[in-house]
């Protein structure tokens, strides 16, 4: 599949994904709607009928774009003005982002700057090549691991018990990219409030920025009209709540694109689960939308 996809323009693949998303989204409503209804209710969004159908179609669209991004990881990306201006800055900064489907190319763009990526390697990175894996499903997992390993291994800093390596990088003028919405095991870090959930969520980005006296910027991106794009906003205040509020705004604007929603629901504190909105027709005010920050749905 990969050699064939490489011969097809990315825009064509993206249009094909838009067609496939409709029947696949309807199947998702039938066979995977329960957890998604819970997620939408947590957001205060309508969780049945046409709103649920639209959500499922958009989620499938986003997941297909994730697949296409792995099939063609080197597709040219549109660098928008904020990203171009950030890339020209001298000195250190902390760049935060969120885990959205279809944004692999956005992360790869940061490796083409002088940025270092603080991340936990996914399973399989640095392991067997896809051609060495007999099972088709495992071969695709190996292919994704290969892309991530080639893109990020040379520039990544693995999270560890000491922050010395991060501060050393910042104080030497190296920007750091941190995914701020990574949900970890309960008890590993203090719980934070996100989307009305109490979840174990690291907030080290803001603390690192303050310790190194570095500004905080926000990395955004996605795919629009078959063209991957990247942008940078900020600087924003370097405190934990400001960063989490920005992440929440992104997720509420594009809820179908968030890759960690199911993990957040499963790891939410029990008290949070008891307080979830369970009415199908929530009376809560509609969340304020922000301009599309990941136009890949």
General description of the model:
The chain has 297 residues and is of the alpha/beta class. It is built from eleven helices and nine strands. The protein has a seven-stranded mixed beta sheet, sandwiched between helices. α2 crosses α3 and α7 packs across α8. The relative contact order is 0.18.
Biggest sheet character = 7 strands, mixed
Q: What value does the average pLDDT take?
A: 86
Tell me what portion of residues adopts beta-strand conformation: 5-15%
Overall form? globular
Order of SSEs: HHHEHEHEHEHEEEHEEHHH
Report the strand count: 9
Tally of contiguous helical segments: 11
Radius of gyration: 19 Å
Question: How are the elements arranged and paired?
Answer:
Blueprint: H1 2-6, H2 10-43, H3 49-71, E1 78-79, H4 81-87, E2 94-97, H5 104-111, E3 116-118, H6 136-152, E4 156-157, H7 164-171, E5 176-179, E6 191-194, E7 197-200, H8 204-212, E8 216-224, E9 227-236, H9 240-253, H10 261-267, H11 270-274
Parallel strand pairs: 1-9, 2-5, 2-8, 3-4, 3-5
Antiparallel strand pairs: 6-7, 8-9
Helix pairs in contact: 2-3, 7-8
Short description:
The protein has 297 residues and is an alpha/beta fold. 46% of the residues lie in helices and 14% in strands.
Q: Which terms would index this structure?
A:
297 residues; 7-stranded mixed beta sheet; 11 helices; 9 strands; disordered C terminus
């Amino acid at each position: 599949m990969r050699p064939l996809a490489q011969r097809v323009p990315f825009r064509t693949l993206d249009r094909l994904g838009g067609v496939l998303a409709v029947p696949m989204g309807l199947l998702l409503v039938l066979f995977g709607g329960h957890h998604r209804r819970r997620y939408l209710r947590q957001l205060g969004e309508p969780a049945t009928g046409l709103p649920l159908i639209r959500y499922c179609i958009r989620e499938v669209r986003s997941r297909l774009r994730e697949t296409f991004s792995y099939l063609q990881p080197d597709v040219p990306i549109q660098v928008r003005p904020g990203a171009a201006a950030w890339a020209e800055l001298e000195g250190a900064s902390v760049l935060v982002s969120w885990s959205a489907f279809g944004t692999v190319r956005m992360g790869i763009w940061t490796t083409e700057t002088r940025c270092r990526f603080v991340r936990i390697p996914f399973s399989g990175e640095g392991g067997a090549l896809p051609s060495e894996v007999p099972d088709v499903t495992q071969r695709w997992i190996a292919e994704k691991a290969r892309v991530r390993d080639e893109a990020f291994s040379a520039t990544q800093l693995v999270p560890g018990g000491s922050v010395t390596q991060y501060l050393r990088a910042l104080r030497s003028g190296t920007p750091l990219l941190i995914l701020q919405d990574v949900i970890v095991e309960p008890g590993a870090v203090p719980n934070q409030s996100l989307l009305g959930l109490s979840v174990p969520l690291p907030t080290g980005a803001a603390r690192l920025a303050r310790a190194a006296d570095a500004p905080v910027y926000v990395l955004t991106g996605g795919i629009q009209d078959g063209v991957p794009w990247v942008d940078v906003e900020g600087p924003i205040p370097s405190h934990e709540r400001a960063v989490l509020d920005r992440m929440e705004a992104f997720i509420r604007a594009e809820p179908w694109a968030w890759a960690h929603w199911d993990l957040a629901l499963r790891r939410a504190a029990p008290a949070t689960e008891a307080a979830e909105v369970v009415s199908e027709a929530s009376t809560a005010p509609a969340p304020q939308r922000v301009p599309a920050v990941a136009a890949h749905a």
